[in-house]
Model the fold of this input.
Amino acid sequence: MTSYQIAKIFGIPIRAHITLVILLPLFAVDFARALHTHSLLWGLLAAVGLFASVALHELGHSVVAIRKHCRVREILLLPIGGVAQLDQMPSRPRDEFQMAIAGPLVSAVLAVLGWFGGSAVFNLGFHNLGRVLSLLGGVNLMLFLFNLLPSFPMDGGRIFRSWLTPRVGRLVATGIAAKIGRFMALVFGVLAVIHFNLFLLLIAIFIYQAAGAEYRMVRIQEASRGSPFATWTSPEKTSPYQDGEIEVGPPPYRTGRTSTSFVRPIRAQHDLFDDLFQKWRW
Done:
């Protein structure tokens, strides 16, 4: 057993990978520095709040997926982000847009609540708690903005594809979003080398692999339909849902002196993650 169920919401199991449990103290230290406090308790509270925010982000995706008749197996929390595992994912552009935008909207709401709630609590005299809430508000704002970048593996890549698909076809739209994602990964890789930041380098690798995996998956799906340039102009001819396991998730936020890092893992990223931290199973 390398992941543990910590909650169940709307019938969806929420699990934490063992590496998240192991690395949680490091996140606590990171957040304690950001809060300018020597108490790891407040840093730990902020770290737990971070991954609770990631879980809520994933629930946003999952609730919409369920409304689109897609079964959600579970939500898995990892040190590098959250993953909602779906048996299938809506393939119609409108459905994909609604599911993709749901997560960032949750993060936006949490950002507003964090800011206003933190300010109110701080003014009541609970300064440390106010700082934690305000920090989580800023974290969720950055999750919201970063996930809207029009490239895979971020949510913005799916939003961008849902807009582009009716114009150029799903395969071409995916290829464009994947290329943007890989370009971003290269930029992150250069920054990682400049700042000697291993965490950012891992993020760059994850994003690069995830973008390529998404394009390969869509190419196989479109080829299996017999039309690699399908554009959904005739919805009756194709199923509105893709078959197979789809994973979507936003990245977490990591504070530090040299960089702020994000990553949103999907299937290909798990292969590399497993190589680093050994195979895990459900």
